[in-house]
Amino acid sequence: MPQNDFPSDLMEAQTAWYRTYWQLAESGPAASTTTDRRRLQELSAQIADHPYWRGPLGTPAARMELKELARRRVGR
Question: Global pTM?
């Protein structure tokens, strides 16, 4: 898999997305999930609309690579 040099804010947003996702997934049934769900929506929009994707390196393969790298950073 090729190594992209992703902007730090994009990598941080994707990493935060996974941390929030797993926090939401592991919350108990009595937990209030509104804040985490909103955070996921905000992070999703931030990631999807990042200027990096508008350049020549913004390929579907690069999106998958970003996700894999971020997931490894989170430890999942």
Answer: 0.88
